[in-house]
Amino acid sequence: MRFLFLCLAVGAFPARSLGQLLANSKTIVRQSDTRPQLVDLTDLLLKLKDKFHVDLLFEEKIVENIRVSPNSIRPSASFEDNLETLLRSTGIHYMKVKKDTYVLRNEKISIEQKPLEHVPAFPADNRLKAIGMLERKMLAVPAKAADVTITGRVTDEKGEVLPGVNVTVKGTLRGVSADASGNYSLSVPSGQVTLVFSFVGYVSQEVQLGEKKTLDVILRSDNKNLEEVVVVAFGTQRKESIVGAISSVSASDLKVPVSKLSNALAGQIAGIVSVQGSGEPGSGSSFWIRGISSFGANNTPLILVDGIQRSMDLVDPEDIESFSILKDASATAVYGVRGANGIVLITTKKGKYSDKPTINARFERGFLAPIRLPKLANAEQWMDYYNDISYDANGSVPFPDHIKQKYLSGADPDLYPNVDWMKTTYKDVTTSNRLNLNVTGGGRIARYYVSGSYYNENGLFNPVVTESYNPSVKYNKFTFRSNLDVDITKSTELSLNLSNTYENKSRLGVDMGTMYNIVMTTPPIAIAPYYSDGSHAQPLVGSNPYYALNSTGFSQDFWNTSQSLMSLTQDLSEYVLPGLKFNVKFSWDATNESTLDKRKNPATYYATGRDESGKLILHKNADGSDYLSLARSNRGTKTTNLESSLTYDNAFGDHRVGGLFLFTRREFTNNFPTNYILAFPYRNIGIAGRLTYAFKNKLFFDGNFGYNGSENFAPSHRFGFFPSIGLGYNVSKERFFHDLFPAVNLMKFRGSHGYIGNDQIGGDRRFAYNSEMQYSGSYTFGTTGQKYISGIATGNPGNPNVAWEEAIKTNIGFEIGIWDKLKLQIDYFNERRDGIYILQQSVPSVVGINVAQYVNLGKMANRGVDGSIEYSYVKGDWLLSARGNFSYNRNKVIYNDSPTPIYGYQEVAGQAYDQQFGLVSMGLFKSVEDIEQSPVQKFGSVVPGDIKFKDINGDGVVDSYDRIAIGRTTVPELSYGFGLSAKYKQFDLSGFFQGVGNVTRIIGGDPVQGPQGSILVNGQILADAAEKRWSLHNQDPNAEYPRMSLAYNENNRQASTFYQKDMSFIRLKNAEIGYTVPKSIVSKAKVASLRFYAQAVNLFTVSKFKLWDPELNASFGNIYPQMKTVSIGASLNF
């Protein structure tokens, strides 16, 4: 008869981390007995376990053939009282090792008194893991002939330490448990010895010791582990029973040197589409789950940190325990109105049982430089360009050679400047710093995790700094987190999570976008940075980048966010029903923000020449003051959440049933409203439920619902019901499957369908059922003593029928595992949005109103596929792993109430959201004859060198009716990432690539298309345009840029395929090399582990587009660039 030992989840004994107690144990199986008086002890242990919902750990042989009276169990007594009564006459004693976990042992058999050679080895499937472990050693056997001490460290495939791993000498009971840092030390006999490393959820590994004194081991995940759990909506579920589309990423993959967590997501997870539109210090990324599914007000996912809606960017990567995204209806329906765009679940770290605190420290120093800056025309290129567009019939030019030479020689930079504004205003390299310190510990009653972190990043701009005046761009963030868990009783747990994030950012006196425009548009010869006599230089028209950078003041932004979460969990297994738990949680978050603006505006001058003495002739073109003005503004919010739930999870033979019923209420208040709409609190209320069922761990059912109320709609439409259903079939659990496909350890099919809502109606709009009243027009009464009266009229009429935007989602998934090493997951999804909240455009004139109404008329579809693959290989001192993922989606606008165009090819419906429309370029006009023989272009007169467009409708004219859908969207339809990692002894190396495809953008603006107007002061162009444009001296019909001119050229500024560029790219997103100092060295300093590493982010990019970083959302590169970072650091564990 075989028994099943209930596996203890990752944890520790009070004296020290025991970790996984019965890694290879089996389940207790009920066996009937025909004798009425006595029954097997195992049967009664099973009854006690089920009744009190505890874990029992014991060696098989100590309970064999022991029979006891069934009357030993008293229903009214506690578990421990019943256990004492049951074991009283057996010679077996119990020990409580942690909450709801007990070990049975036979005191009459003293393992420590047995000679080593007489201790039998347990079979591989029934090896004792926990008996007699009172202090550090798991089995304290005297070290007979133990003349060698072996030390080492145990980690998983991702390099994360594994505390509690069992390390035993094969064929003996000698062993230890790895400590909280994954380190172990074990005395072994000399000679040929084999060590066995085992851990629940991981494949056991045997290693021959040989002559080694230090042995580091990597354990590989065991895909067969049925008890592995993943974080899902409002709780956890066993991984094998999941039928929804859920993807996750290891927290270690998010530990990259970036200012915001959202910047670390690109390419990391199947289903995430991420775009970082700016590299400004402190800025984050925009991202979507499975692309954009609605053209309504809100497409952003719901972010939940420890179950509470919060900002992802306030979480330090070091504090993350798990990171998952929920993508389909089965996974998100319980969130009702908040789940339509997918959900990100972040769980922060908790305290652990440990005999002493574990201290982890990490420090990084980073060096940053732009990925790719636009290259602007130098002085010679620009003067040649200006000469070309100013050429007249007499052959005269504004910059003849002798004038050009004055600018190029640098003899008089006041009057003849030659300035590289990029180098003048930007640094070549800037810096960042990151520091994290966290402490983990706890005992049987309380466990804690405390963390503090600091991040600093200096900006790219290079202003002149003095002790009293510092306009530098920089960002600082301080984060504190404390997670405390207390066992009030053996069935009651209280958790208190506190965090605070303080951020401050210093900015220039001018807006960042304005600053970039000034740099990008000011020619190199326009003005000197400053005059030699110290005067502030400023052109009569336009701006001086140096003055804007150094002499306009600066701003400082401050954010302080305090978050608290209290949670109480009561296990009702002993009192009501086994497997039943009650939880209530309350959170209170407050954000206070302020901006301090310090401005100055010194007098500026413009030099027109030199007098007889050589002194500059300056003309003041603006009065000003060197004194700083001061202005402050304040903002703040408060958010509370109340949530209570009942959960149930229990097994009955081949059947497992789970359930959830939950109530939730959320309130958001703007403490500094700028209008009466914002002054009202925002409130949501709802209930949710889930029912799960599993049969023999191969057939799965998952039913969910959310029922939510929103204030935005009239009472008759205020509440919505959003159900979903999911089914799964693990065919690899069938008996025939293993015989047919022995290499396949997992093959699972799953599918889901459901409805989810979205109540976001955009901007400050609220209470859509009410009409808006606004001032409109005026009238002056009387001829004497006239009185001016403003009128009031209806703005947007209210709509009492407006309701939820509804997402109908279908998902079909497939998972396969091969050789316990290769994992593959593929999901196909199809989503339709109905009732998208839009402003009605097709209002007939007979209605008699000239304002539009908001209605639920919009429709949109989105479908695609995403998947991931993982492979790991462990042998000896080597660990090799590879992973990859991809996400592809294509959306389509079905209906948006736009007016029906004359030509069907201009219809927005049927096209992708954000589809670009424009003319189709046919190159450049080659000659006058070419122009005369082509359709007439209605965008001003054209000459050779101008862009030639295709006549789409064939009417002989090229006009707005010839605009069609061109290229792709500005949001990538394809996102992917793949990486490799290797570890050999103390060395580790990893690299991760990220890429996007099916994304285009139309570039334009003065630096690309040629400026008009005051070209001498704001007429800069790209160096690429200066070199490759069509000109009188380069009449190349295949030139990359068309003719440029002083006059406004409407034809060449049309959105068209000529300027549309493929913005696809692949980049080395992250690369890291590290070295872990041997324990034999660091242990002398009482250090558990020490690792040095170098890391690079955005190291290089491969793309067809070369002018600037293709990820930037910029028409001519006029946005703060993304940065590539090289950092060095160290991580230290005590």
From TrEMBL:
The keyword Acyltransferase does not apply. Transmembrane segments: none annotated. Coiled coil: none annotated. InterPro entries: CarboxyPept-like_regulatory (IPR008969), Plug_dom (IPR012910), Plug_dom_sf (IPR037066), TonB-dep_OMP_SusC/RagA (IPR023996), TonB-dep_OMP_SusC/RagA_CS (IPR023997), TonB-dep_rcpt-like (IPR039426). It is a multi-pass membrane protein. Residues 239-343 form the TonB-dependent receptor plug domain. Keywords: Cell outer membrane, Membrane, Transmembrane, Transmembrane beta strand, Transport. This is TonB-linked SusC/RagA family outer membrane protein. It comes from Dyadobacter jiangsuensis. The lineage of its organism: Bacteria, Pseudomonadati, Bacteroidota, Cytophagia, Cytophagales.
